[in-house]
Amino acid sequence: MDGKEKAASMAKEAVYVIGHKNPDSDSVCSAIGLAELKSALGEGAFVPARAGDLNPQTEFILKYNNVEPPRYISDVHPRAKDIMSTGVVTVTEQTPFHKVLELMREEQVRFMPVLDGDGRPKGVLTLMELAKRYLEAEHSIEVTTSLGNIIATLGARVKNDTLGSKEITLTVYIGAMSEEAFLYILGQEDPGKCALIVGDRADIQKRAVEKGVGLLIISGGFDVDECVVKAAKERGVSIIVSPFDSATTSILVRVSTPAYMVCERSFETVSPDDLVESLKSKAAAAAGLIVLDGNGVMQGVITKSDILKPAGTNLVLVDHNEISQAVDGAEKVNIVEVVDHHRIGNFNCTLPISFICEPVGSTSTLVSELYRRKDAPIKKEVAGILLGGVLSDTVILRSPTTTERDREIVKWLEERAGLDHNTYGAEIFGSTASISKRGPEAVVGSDFKVFEAKGKKFGIGQVETIGFDEFHSEAQKLMDELVKARDKKELKLSALLVTDITLGTSLLLATGEKEVICKLDYPRLKESVFELKNVISRKKQLLPHVLSVFNEVY
Ligand SMILES: [Mn+2]
């Protein structure tokens, strides 16, 4: 890859801005907001991503603002396509061996695929194997090629061509010996399968033509006597003139062999989606792996150095900094930035990065502050998304984690999104906490747990709401469901804990055995409705009391 190609391949590598696994609204909203900001600031291609399914609340926020969900990424384990070299030097089956060597030297590669016209690999050339082949040749040199290839390789002048482009196998001799020795050698062989390289030695030239050698190569650029050419034409002997001396000519004839003659026909191929981890042993054993697409067309090449080069995937982590919470494979790729509001876990990295971690109510607060600080324009829908993130994490600024900075940025976002945080926040929480929308069956049933005490069963469901107005208007329908559950499951108590997450307090709707209901030690608001001040936990607060009631009654 030259510098230009390297720059191009780096530019196409996107940076994913991604929140934690089991993403909540803040992690999705802050990812979208930060990716938008960075792209707007021209810092490169930033793509918002998510490491899991959207929860209904986040879905609501995105739909409300007409924003597409970020790309789902199941893992970022490096794959073949992430590390392969593209734009690699290739040759065709007809490329002469010397051209292969020249390319290997110029491009500094040791591995070269041989492709057909459709980009499908036919073989591979490796410097190692080519060197071996070259070194293994014994005293006589046998070469399989065509006269056309020899002529092209030498840049030879043609005096007589009887062989053309057909494939021939020739044993190459240099006519530096005496005439007797030469005749002796030719006597041992089929002269038609010999190529003789000789300088301006008319005696040897004539003898060679008489004997009918396959090819006569005159070295040193010497002219050939017309009578020799005439005899050659009569005898059907090809004659060419090489501009090089005999030794060089001999070497070049040997390397005029086309690539398909010298390439290895067996080679390792992998798929673009293969995990790099699974390729390591294959790559160690082979000079190179060819990455093929579904049609068998080469997409790139992986050599040992590709396996060693740093991962191409870059991540910006939002709303988390602990690798254990990050998308699978995050430990194997580059984390280039962190924006978070959680405790700092065991984060470490090899290069200095921007690491923003501040104790505010949401990551969306930090991202919004970046827009403000950099004076970057913010789209209306992005402001809406970020406002949703802040309101979700801070439970509409009511959570004890809320800071002055959150309140401040909410005002700033409200203006840009054209939304009122109280109304919008209520809608966001209403989207998941809405009793009427979900229907009584889902409200009672989706989180209904059955317990046992003294051999008697009781069941308690729980639902989160914003305020109790909706509960009061739906109470009769909910009671009908509780009665159904009571009768069906033979419960001594069937109850629903309705928790206002904004106030941190609950109401309990209950039906069951009179003795049990009477013993519930909570103020009664209505016939079947109790007020459980500051109770938010079914497990830690309500259950112990119900168990003590059962112990008393039964
Ligand atoms: Mn958060």
Q: Which CATH-level-2 architecture of the largest domain?
A: Alpha-Beta Complex
Spell out which ligands are present.
Answer: manganese (II) ion
CATH domain class of the largest domain: Alpha Beta
Low-confidence stretches: 1-12
Q: Please describe the biggest sheet, giving its number of strands, its sense, and whether it closes into a barrel.
A: 6 strands, parallel
Helix content: 40-55%
| Strand content bin | 15-25%
Beta strands, count: 24
Fold and architecture overview:
The chain is an alpha/beta fold and 554 residues long. It folds into three domains: 3-78 and 314-421, inorganic pyrophosphatase (n-terminal core); 81-134 and 261-308, CBS-domain; 436-553, DHHA2 domain (Diaminopimelate Epimerase, Chain A, domain 1, Roll). It contains 23 helices and 24 strands. It has a six-stranded parallel beta sheet. A six-stranded mixed beta sheet has the order 7-9-10-11-12-8, with helices on both faces. The longest helix has 21 residues, at 469-489. The protein is elongated, with a radius of gyration of 40 Å. Mean pLDDT is 89; it is low at 1-12. The structure holds manganese (II) ion. Residues 26, 319, 341, 362-363, 393 line the site of manganese (II) ion.
